[in-house]
Design goal:
The complex is a heterodimer of chains A (389) and B (293). Chain A is of the alpha/beta class. Chain A is built from twelve helices and 16 strands. Helix content of chain B is 38%, strand content 15%. Chain B has an eight-stranded mixed beta sheet, with helices on both faces. The chains are: A alpha/beta (389), B alpha/beta (293). β9 of chain A pairs parallel with β2 of chain B, so a sheet runs across the interface.
Chain lengths: 389, 293
């Protein structure tokens, strides 16, 4: 049934339909709408779940680690500082092989306080062993969240569903909400591969010597690798049932494109407009949207970019001392491909600043008019900046 | 104590506790009282090591090792999951040291008991970060040497009164216990098991390695801590009703201090001052228990 939903509520609907059993949350803008409505669902009996109103994000993730280890499906949502506070336990969740699902609404990190979109928070969790999926619109959010549970449980790794603050979390759009029966067919109840059980006492997560630790980590690496294939399988199964398919990347007009934008999140939607406009003027331009960031779909990216003359990566994030983070990853994916296209890195929309069609078009022309990248990242739309001293 | 409880054993031999380890004695007694329907949350502490390295476990109950500061929170999650599965019978037990309780795990503990989560939190208190090599915690008593309070820099601050902090949360049951008083300890663990909501048990667990005492003195020292009023045995129900379980015979604290290497730098004057502090604390407790006007 089509409903007009906020992005946050698209997450919540998926969580309700996934029959999550334990939810834990701590308030932080801009993810609050997700957990507020879930709390209400629990209170009204619309969900048969226990809602833990914990005293910090750190405790929130710890509670989910406990609950998931005891064999139930779990969920939380957070943003920015909250995600940063969870950092230690993000490693813990993947190391303990727990298929926890979390919605992360991208928020810029303080100081100064900023509640608006910026992907540096989630990308700073790149190496924690979480699968990361970036969403473009409300339907994508609902569908990805449903798929996330199946994906997480198939490889025993946690999944982070990432959505832009406000542009997606607080924007109302028509979203097709499937029925409970349909979701039940797609997502069977959680069957834990292991759990805390007094009939079969085991010690989870004890001291591990160098003689075993490395193999345990290698298992996580293998599970991540397996997740790439599982993502496609689950995406295909979802498409067969719901007629919507996403892929780890989406290539738009890339076949004959000389210049290919690489985008994530809601910037992709803006870029689609720019693409139409530029195409109408005869420009051979394409977009490669990255949806899956961990595991990184390097092979698909190489395949889609192989005939491009130039690549322009739009990063709403930054790694100080290096460059935009998606640009780094794309460069790393391409570097061993002979005759790969040069990668132009652009930083835009930091801390919630608008990424307008005009700005994206400026990126296009700057890329077209440069033979080679002048630096790793060009900051776009800056006001005049004086030296910090 | 019924023999079926005294005879059952949930700690295997082969654990890697130090000789005379009070924390290991405490674990043995508490698990005897709680029985096999128990799931343990074990934040970083000596017991993270004592339980044995992968793939072994010295404990005959399920254990989830947890991050240092998460004892209260991880247990909340385990409890929630068990409740969702319809298992209200199994006891969820957090087993933490003083560092994981008084210091780094304090927030998660306070949060969990404020929510009155149905679980038992046991703090076995050896009065410093023993697992990392005897560093000072907020449980380290006035006067103690540790590897981070050396020489003339010995700790000149009071031990945090964690029991009163928990009492202030008005949870159903808070009690102190000692490895030197096993009947009292077992009774309290059983009472905690039978009480719904949040329970906190503070167990005095001597540490020969960190306290610089011979291993065979472990229980004697723990007994003296009670007999001198340094560590009174008492329980508090609903944050209101105090019961003092043991009335000491006014032993002097200096006897307790003189036996431990960690206090050997203290002068007679220091010990007199400590005696006065202990007397003050005891008077305060008597007043709370309604035994002094």
């Amino acid at each position: 049934m089509k409903r007009v939903l906020e992005g946050s509520h698209a997450v919540a609907e998926a969580v309700r339909l996934a029959k999550v059993q334990v939810i834990s949350a701590y308030p932080i803008t801009p993810q609050t709408h997700i957990v507020e409505i879930l709390s209400e669902y629990c209170t009204k009996g619309m969900m048969n779940a226990k809602f833990l109103r914990v005293e910090s994000e750190h405790s929130c993730m710890a509670a989910l680690i406990g609950a998931q280890s005891a064999g139930v499906r779990t969920f939380t949502a957070t943003s920015g500082q909250g995600l940063a506070l969870m950092h230690e336990l993000l490693h813990w969740a993947s190391g303990a092989r727990l298929p926890i699902v979390m919605a992360e609404v991208n928020r810029a990190l303080a100081p100064g306080w900023n509640i608006w979109v910026d992907q540096t928070d989630s990308l700073a969790q790149r190496d924690t062993g979480w699968i990361q999926i970036y969403c473009e619109d409300g339907q994508d959010v609902l569908d990805s969240t449903l798929q996330a549970f199946r994906l997480a449980e198939s490889v025993n790794l946690p999944v982070m569903i990432v959505l832009d603050a406000f542009y997606l979390s607080h924007t109302y759009e028509p979203v097709d909400v499937p029925s409970q029966e349909e979701v039940d067919r797609f997502l069977p109840p959680f069957v834990p591969k292991f759990q805390l059980d007094t009939a079969h006492p085991c010690g989870f997560g004890p001291l591990v010597a160098p003689s075993d630790y490395m193999e345990m980590r290698y298992h996580i690496a293998m599970a991540m690798e397996e997740a790439l294939g599982r993502f496609d399988e689950i995406d295909a199964a979802f498409a067969a049932q719901f007629n919507r398919r996403y892929g780890p990347v989406e290539a738009i007009d890339c076949e004959d494109a000389d210049i290919i934008f690489i985008t994530t999140g809601t910037v992709t939607s803006t870029c689609r407009i720019v693409l139409q406009d530029l195409r109408a003027r005869g420009e051979k331009v394409g977009i490669l949207k990255l949806k899956l960031f961990r595991p990184f779909p390097a092979a698909q990216i190489r395949e889609k970019l192989k005939s491009a003359k130039k690549v322009a990566v739009v990063d709403r994030n930054f790694s100080f001392g290096a460059s935009g983070i998606f640009a780094q990853e794309v460069r790393a994916a391409l570097c061993n491909m002979p005759d790969h296209p040069p990668v132009f890195g652009y930083v835009a929309g930091i801390g919630g600043r608008d990424v307008t069609p005009e700005l994206l078009e400026a990126i296009y022309w700057q890329t077209k008019n440069s033979d080679v990248p002048q630096k790793e990242s060009v900051w776009m739309g800056l006001r005049e900046v004086k030296n910090a001293d | 104590m019924p023999t079926e409880i005294m005879d059952r054993e949930f700690v295997h031999s082969g654990h890697v506790g130090c000789p005379g380890c009070g924390a290991t004695i405490a674990m043995r007694f508490v698990l005897k009282a709680l029985g096999e329907k128990t799931i343990m949350v074990l934040p970083a502490c000596c017991w993270s090591v004592i339980a044995g390295p992968y793939p072994q476990s010295a404990l005959k109950i399920p254990v989830i090792h947890a991050a240092f500061e998460t004892g209260g929170a991880t247990a909340s999650g385990v409890r929630a999951a068990l409740d969702m599965k319809g298992d209200t019978e199994t006891t969820v037990l957090t087993w933490a040291g003083d560092g994981g309780t008084f210091d780094i795990g304090f927030q998660a503990l306070s949060g969990a008991v404020e929510r009155n989560e149905n679980f038992l939190y046991v703090c076995y208190d050896n009065e410093a970060y023993m697992n990392t090599g005897i560093q000072r915690s907020s449980s380290t008593p006035y006067g103690a040497w540790t590897t981070t309070t050396t020489g003339q820099d010995w700790k000149r601050l009071r031990k945090k009164n964690i029991v009163e902090v928990l009492v202030a949360h008005r949870i159903p049951y808070v009690a102190t216990a000692s490895i030197a008083f096993p009947d009292d300890l077992l009774r309290k663990a059983q009472k905690a098991k039978e009480t719904k909501g949040s329970k906190f048990l503070h167990i005095y667990a001597s540490c020969p390695t960190g306290w610089r005492i011979p291993s065979e003195m472990s229980v004697k020292i723990a007994r003296m801590a009670v007999q001198t009023n340094i560590f009174p045995l008492y329980e508090v129900e609903d944050g209101l009703r105090y019961t003092i379980n043991y009335k000491p015979k006014e032993y002097l604290v200096r006897e307790y201090f003189k036996l431990q290497g960690r206090f050997k730098h203290l002068t007679d004057q220091d010990l007199d001052q400590i005696q006065q502090m202990v007397n003050e604390d005891w008077e305060l407790l008597l007043r709370k228990a309604g035994e002094r006007a």
